Amino acid sequence: MTPRNPRSQRPRRLGQPKTSPTVFPLLSLPIELRLEIYELVLIRSCRFPIPYPRRRTNRGENDRNRRFRTQIGLNLLLSCRQVYQEASKILYSRNHFIAVTDICLESFLTSIGQNIQFLRRLQLDLHLEGREETCLLRARHWMSLFQLLAREAKGLIELEVGFSEVAPRLAPNYETGKDEKLALEIGDALSKMRNLKTLVIFGFYGMYWPAYFGTKTTALVKTFKGNRILLGTPPERWIQKYDAELERFQADTEHMLRGHV
User: Fold this and answer.
1) Are strands 121-126 and 96-99 parallel, antiparallel or unpaired?
2) What does the pLDDT look like over 8-44, one tens digit per residue?
């Protein structure tokens, strides 16, 4: 049996303060220094995908959630209430967030509560894959989230909206008018975003959608060819393929929103 170290059994002297070399007295610093620390820890130059809700059990999604919390320094906000109140505005107002699904966005907006007012830059990727009934339900859900952003995200100044690369599969159904209604409802939400400065549209969008959105908002409307979710510079053949698909797709949308521009 290994003998115990007698020093470890020595009692602590009365009045001797407990010390821990891993604890830093953050709250004892002046507020100006604390704010500088928050900026160094929480602000990132890259965009951050909003993590999937915790109820998801997919291992890859859980790994992404852990990386998100670690990379963006969310553990700092969880240290105490005072730090959370001081640092949350920096976190949400100085970073650019990406929502790749409507479920991700809904969970994110619900979890941050009143901090939604601090959001400044947001990218939304509208993936409407699946059967027609599923696409309609997801589109309605996206529209309710757009209306929520219009009501609560008063500080939003830059919004990017991407339409899924599977959208061309829906092109033959345009005569039903449901996709035109989708654009009209987005335009209605945009008209309520008073502080919006820049609107970027990318992916597969209707021919007159940029011009129509320009009539509904005072923001500068831009278009971006391709999918912003791709990392790095896509190969030239991908760009050429996208251009050809977008041209064919928009040929089926010439009648949409023509009278609204």
Assistant:
1) parallel
2) 555 555 555 555 556 777 888 899 999 998 998 888 8
Whole-angstrom Cα distance, residue 207 to residue 149? 25
Q: List CB contacts of 29: < 8 A, sequence separation 6 or more.
A: 37
pLDDT at residue number 220: 94
Residue 128: exposed, middle, or buried by beta-carbon count in 10 A (0-12, 13-18, 19+)?
buried
239-259 confidence digits (pLDDT tens) = 777 778 888 878 877 887 887
Whether the CB-CB separation of 113 and 88 falls below 8 Å is answered with no
219-235 in b/e form (b: 16+ CB < 10 A) is bebeeeebbebeeeeee
Give whole-number Cα distances, 214 to 17, 187, 217, 221, in Å: 65, 9, 6, 6
Residues 130 and 138: their CA atoms lie apart, in Å, by 10
* Exposure string for 180-199, b = 16+ CB within 10 A, e = fewer: bebbbbbbebbeebeebeeb
User: Cα–Cα distance between 95 and 108 in angstroms, integer?
Assistant: 14
Say which residues have a Cβ less than 8 Å from residue 223's Cβ, sequence separation at least 6.
200, 201, 202, 205, 210
Output 256-259 pairs: Cβ under 8 A, ≥24 positions apart: 256/174, 256/179, 256/180, 256/183, 256/206, 256/207, 256/208, 256/209, 257/180, 257/183, 257/184, 257/206, 257/208, 257/209, 257/211, 257/212, 258/208
Q: Are 64 and 49 in contact (CB under 8 A)?
A: yes
Paired tokens of 105: 């966005």
